[in-house]
Each structure stands twice: as structure tokens, then as C-alpha cells.
Amino acid sequence: MLGISTRNSHYVYGVIQSIITCMVAAAIANLPSLSPGDFIQHWLRSWAMSALVMLPVVLFAAPWIRRVVDRLACDRRS
Length: 78
Prior knowledge:
Layout: E1 4-5, H1 9-30, H2 39-72, E2 73-74
Parallel strand pairs: 1-2
């Protein structure tokens, strides 16, 4: 336990969620770069693929992230 106050645990949740989201989105965004194309088409295709993949990732990862944050955070109102 790191001793993070439960009052601030939503920040920890956001950091962990952002890290996971960015890792997946960056991996997907790099896949289309293997073929030639202009920036707008590449970006829109990458964004659409990332959005379609991230929805289930976020839905399934959120409960696990919440459990991790609950273990890292503690209530310091003693």
C-alpha cells in the first residue's frame, strides 16, 4: 500500500486508465503507418480503430483498475 488517501484515489485511477488507454491506442495507431497514405486519412483510420477497440478495453479494465486503486489507497482519517 502506498498510503494514497481515498479522497485522491480518483487521480490514481485516471493515471492508470490513461496509461492503459494510451498504450493500446498508440499500438493501434502505428499499425496503419505500415502502408502509405496522407496524414488526415491515416489519423482518421487510426482514431476509428482505436475508438472501436478502446471501448471494450475500458469497460473490462475499469473494474480491475478500481481494485488496484483501492489497494493502493487508504483512508487517512485516523
